[in-house]
Amino acid sequence: MEEKYFLKNKDNPESKNIDFYVKNGGYKAWESVLEGKSPDEVIGEVKKSGLRGRGGAGFPAGMKWSFVPKDSDRPKYLICNADESEPGTFKDRYIIEREPHMMLEGIAIASFAINCHQAYIYIRGEFVYGAKVLDEAIAEAEARGCLGKNIMGTGYDLDIAVHRGAGAYICGEETGQIESLEGKRGWPRLKPPFPAVVGVFNSPTVVNNVETLANLPLIFNRGADYFAGIGPNAKNTGPKLYCVSGHVKRPGLYEFPLGKNLNELIYEDCGGIRDGHELKAVIPGGSSVPVLRPEEIDVSMDYDSLAAIGSMLGSAGAIVMDDTTCLVDSLLNLEQFYAHESCGQCTPCREGTMWMVKILSRIEKGQGRMEDMDLLDDVAKNINFRTICPLGDAAAMPAMSFIDKFRDEFEEHIKQGGCPIQKDKSIKVPNADA
Amino acid sequence: MPTLKIDGKEITVEKGTSVLQAALDHGIDIPHYCYHPSLNIAGSCRLCLVEIERMPKLVPSCATQAADGMVVTTNSEKVDDARKSILEFLLINHPLDCPICDKAGECKLQDYTFQYGSAHSRFVEDKRRRATKDLGGNILLYRNRCVLCTRCVRFYEDVVGEPYLTVEHRGYHSDISIFPGKELTHKMTGNIVEICPVGCLIDKDFLFHSRVWNLAKTKSICPGCSTGCNMDIEHKDNKIYRIRSRENMTVNRHWLCDYGRYLYHQYDEMDRFTTPLKRTSDKLNKSGWDEARSIIHDRLALLKRSKEIGKMAVVGSAFASNEENYLLYKVFHDELGCDKFFVHQPAIEGEDEVFKGGFTIHTDKSPNQNGANLILGKKTDFWRAIKKGQIDILIFFGKDLALTLSDQQKELLKKLDFIVVFDHTLNDLAQHANVALPVTYFAEQDGSYLNAGMRLQKFQAALTPPDQVLPGWQILLSIYKAFNEDVKMVTVSDIMNDMSRNIKKLNGISFFKIGDEGVQIK
């Protein structure tokens, strides 16, 4: 697919304005849905398109919506998860800042599908500019009658409110987000009940990622079949944003159909590894997924292909590391992040993440013991799948995969009594938008 | 009514029962910290993870409802491994200060570690260390020992209905903390020490007083109000060390208010008379039981079935046991022919306090008004009868530590001819007695109370009373026997059985059959 969907206006600063958006066919999908489709037809269409959640888990969007009970007399809510906090991920930010109406139109269509009249955008607190763009975009859309009361004369009301988070990674987890939206601390809830049945304010709620929702106008403009035709197979469909960061020549945000070859992405689109260095490791889908060795990266970046080799597509935030990277140090960095962001509610994550940090610090400082590798692996295994929410798994998976795939490097640290790698501290972070 | 299998055992439970509760109710232990049957589910300690067929991950049994056909395994290698790891996580930062921890001996971390945990630590890092905090009232927070089960936080939210505690900070630094400006002086606070599964919340009232395994437990009923909370008296060397609630889901669930919890101090510290006293001229002097009994007997024998008996008033008490009130009736009505019976009860002001979780503190600060009324009738105003000059002789059964009299009432007493008082202290009324008889208090005797909800509950003697102090029922029984040789009753149980034969509402219930959870009276 040469045609870009998300990034088609990347060079045009007007893209965030409603005039530009409407002139280029914006809100037509929303209009067609409002005027000609029933909620069930919308859900059916999205199921047919094969759209899967872009937040990380890859759950089929249409199916998620169909779990909302139709006979419930409580109001239904849609939350657009714009808390993009996964290290290595910067795709939603682009949509929020540059294509806010694409996202709002998607929210409107999804709201209609579940009969919701109040939607929320839960945006991470650090996205101050993004929140401002969204507020303005909502005001524009309301003024044009695309949102608000009696939309396009159909009698359908939809209010979208922007809610800014306060900076916790855990509030990107859907039930933590729901708690936070209710004004409580972001402690994830036990499931079941799932949010589709009991979500925010004790009512049926769907939480969808920004990119997931922003795909909807495409589905309803071009048809589910067109959308399903993008990507490698029927289970992995649609356009996808890929974030590439780290030691490549051209890091940044890329758009390809789902199923982009990771090797190609790194070596062709991103220009390969910095001169004079070699690839050491890639985390393909944001910091929470298992790491890949260089010989594993000839893989299709889709949900099932990455799962087949023991990793995950996640948020498609590829973190590329070359030979100047100390993997003990990187893992320590990651685990510090998870220990810092652990909500502390349940035992394995609260105690285990910091334990891993302490062990890794020792190894990195040269005070490691040979048994520490197995211990670390065991601590990670004891966290994995035993916590309330996936943050525990997200902390455990990198640890287990790092030790599994780069055991020699851990051993070297322990044997040498310190870090053997000459770290390159001179790397400058380029502008991701460029 | 779903039927499920836990470890191969077929179990049928009420709809809505959790897998954990179903297991516990049927003798299968699943270790747990955050789960408590009277609190909302947190599902956060992860210790109660079990394996359920067709579920890919281990699931918290506290948060999983029992369903028909469910097959649960609580003892597989996978479950065992998870338990071990959770206990390890909880122990890595827990101080090994059991030798100086009040909770040792009744600590769930000790018990579960011994039963399911590992004997060796793999943790070589520095432990998390935090200073102990005084939360006000009787509560100390030993933060190092906390397992973050949040039972205490949820107790105030779910049971009391007024938040006091919360979790401060995040992740590894999570810490139980009190809201600014608050102190743990709430009247339900003592319960958090009981529900804390480890030695984090400690009661200053008990701190370092005894090792828990040295204390004997006696089942009792709180005499502090008409709720009739079930409790255990924990004692050693004839002294009470602490009082803890005893589960009774129909009365107090798992709770006890601080008034009841620390009420024993008032009895401990009361200025008690410990021998029978008799009046000679203006003074009450020490006497012996033989003498006191003969003074009373001589006086009563003269009255028996005479006209003068009409001038006698017998005042039973809402603080006395059913057996005591019953014997008062047997002796003074059946044997002597008296027909003026009254019940002493405390002044009742304000409204009952009902908390969010349903626990009630009654304003009626006596434990047995319903029982006294059932046995003696509902008349309370004997002062009016005295004022009218209808009374010459007063038999008064008190046991009310808060009893005081107005000057007018004291003057009225001076008009009386003969007063016998059964009580603990020489209060305003006892000071006017011709004979004052020292009686035991609730912790020193057996008996039964009928609570505000008409539940008949029994309590048992934990302590031996001082030499010359006798249970009220024993004194009354000996007076009874002096008048009637046919009386064969010997124990409280005999009195109860006799009483329930004669009082229809008690429906023939025996003392034995009351059991630990009481019996509902219609």
Short descriptors:
heterodimer; A: 434 residues; alpha/beta; Rossmann fold; Ubiquitin-like (UB roll); de novo design (two linked rop proteins); 3 domains; five-stranded mixed β-sheet; four-stranded mixed β-sheet; 18 helices; 11 strands; disordered C terminus; B: 522 residues; alpha+beta; seven-stranded mixed β-sheet; 15 helices; 25 strands; 19% strand
Q: What features would you describe in this structure?
A:
The complex is a heterodimer of chains A (434) and B (522). Chain A has helices at 18-23, 28-36, 39-49, 61-66, 92-98, 100-113, 128-143, 174-181, 210-214, 216-222, 224-228, 262-269, 303-308, 327-341, 347-365, 371-383, 391-405, 407-416; strands spanning 76-82, 116-123, 148-151, 156-164, 205-209, 239-246, 252-257, 260-261, 279-283, 300-301, 317-322. Chain A has 18 helices and eleven strands. In chain A, strand 3 (148-151) and strand 4 (156-164) form a beta hairpin. The longest helix of chain A has 19 residues, at 347-365. Chain A has a five-stranded mixed β-sheet with strand order 3-4-2-1-5. A four-stranded mixed β-sheet of chain A has the order 7-6-11-9, with no helix packed on it. A two-stranded antiparallel sheet of chain A has the order 8-10. Chain A is of the alpha/beta class. In chain A, helix 15 packs parallel to helix 17 (391-405). In chain B, helix 2 (77-92) packs across helix 3 (108-116) and helix 9 (322-335) packs parallel to helix 10. Chain B is of the alpha+beta class. The mean pLDDT of chain B is 96.
What oligomeric state do the depicted chains represent?
A: heterodimer
Helical residues, percent of chain A: 40-55%
Relative strand content of chain A: 5-15%
Main β-sheet description of chain B: 7 strands, mixed
CA radius of gyration of chain B:
27 Å
Mean pLDDT of chain A: 95
